[in-house]
Write a structure and sequence with these properties.
Elements (H helix, E strand, L loop, with lengths): L2 H16 L8 E3 L6 E3 L5 H12 L2 H23 L4
Antiparallel strand pairs: 1-2
Helix pairs in contact: 1-2, 2-3
The structure holds zinc ion.
The site of zinc ion has 8 residues, from helix 2.
Length: 84
């Protein structure tokens, strides 16, 4: 794997984290599938699919996406008393 591929994967992971913020955020629409997305970036599902394609690690990309979403959801449940 090249440094450029590693940088692309790291950026995709960062963008995936950004799709699951705590609290209120500015939402738009995913330019690829029209689902709600933070800041009009690709949505979590599309970013996870791109991460899978770029890395070739489909299960890892799916599991990371689920883990990021669950981290946000359960953190909100513990702090705010409800799931987002
Ligand atoms: Zn999308």
């Amino acid at each position: 794997m090249t440094d450029e591929q590693q940088a692309t994967i790291a950026t995709l992971i960062h963008r995936l984290h950004r799709q699951y913020p705590m609290g209120v955020t500015t939402m738009g629409h995913c330019p690829q599938c029209e689902n709600p997305s933070r800041g009009g970036d690709l949505c979590g599902r599309c970013l996870a699919a791109e991460l899978a394609d770029v890395s070739g690690q489909h299960q890892a990309a799916h599991c990371l996406h689920t883990a990021i979403k669950h981290t946000r959801d359960y953190t909100a449940l513990l702090i705010e008393g409800e799931m987002p």
